[in-house]
Amino acid sequence: MSTFQKYRRNIYSQNGEDGVIAEIVRRIGLTPSWTCDVGAWDGRYGSNCYALVKRGWRCLMIEANPRKFEYLQQLAHRMDGRIKPFQAHVEHDGGPDSLDGILARAQLPGPLELISIDIDSYDYHVWQSFSHRPAIVVIEIGSNMLPGERHIYNGGTRLTSFTSMLELARSKQYTLACHTGNMIFVRNEDVPKLGLTAHELEHPESLFVRDWVNPTRAQVWKRKIRFLTPQRAWVKCVNAIHGNGP
């Protein structure tokens, strides 16, 4: 088992990201600051940031869908300023709705230490065009493609592959810490604090989890049950009642 796989657990995240992020934060020695959730939905369901918010962090949550944004605003109202909601379709070719542009307008009163990008499409391009360097980047990929396959999302049904995202991360001076379905990267300068093995550093493809490669229906349900939590179940039920569910 790789270094961070044993820490996978959910509170609000989808595939164990909450536990991995908490351990990386501990090892790096980050103190509560700002996160950014691109594709935030209602702010809670499947969030890689909300568990940190509950522990005193603050988050710029960006959501394009008007109905989901309505629920995100309601959540932000209850969180005493810890959530800053922002409605936008994040662009990846510059302009005021690029991620850089949104952050400039948001004027966060503190450093951005973690960003989660989960928009089911141009995730690669949004990160590629982003000039900031948070300590941790959590980003969605097409985990049904094995390492070695190169594919960058181009408007079709397939998301960006593991290897293509890894190559982008290397160009931006980031190292892969864990794969959970998302890829979780850490700035190169902080990697010595993580305790990754030499093999993991030299062969990041060894961190790839094959759960999404041609799974059986039983395997899909086993993964869902493994990472189900009372918090996720409650939020999913509330969203379904209000017509805001996945």
Please give a structural write-up:
The protein has 246 residues and is of the alpha/beta class. Helix content is 33%, strand content 16%.
Summarize the structure.
The protein has 246 residues and is an alpha/beta fold. It is 33% helix and 16% strand.
Order of helices and strands: HEHEHEHEHEHEEHHH
Strand order of the largest sheet: 3-2-1-4-5-7-6
Strand-pairing-aware structural class: alpha/beta
Number of domains: 1
Q: Note poorly predicted spans.
A: none
Could you report the average pLDDT, rounded to the nearest whole number?
A: 93
User: For the report, how would you describe the main beta sheet?
Assistant: 7 strands, mixed
Rg from Cα: 17 Å
Q: CATH fold name, please?
A: Rossmann fold
Intertermini distance: 31 Å
Report the count of strand segments: 7
Which range best describes the helical content: under 10%, 10-25%, 25-40%, 40-55%, 55-70% or over 70%? 25-40%
Strand percentage lies at 15-25%
Structural shape: globular
Please outline the helices and strands.
Layout: H1 17-28, E1 34-38, H2 50-53, E2 58-63, H3 66-78, E3 83-87, H4 99-106, E4 112-117, H5 123-128, E5 136-140, H6 162-171, E6 174-179, E7 182-187, H7 198-202, H8 217-226, H9 230-241
Descriptive terms for the model:
246 residues, alpha/beta, Rossmann fold, 7-stranded mixed beta sheet, globular
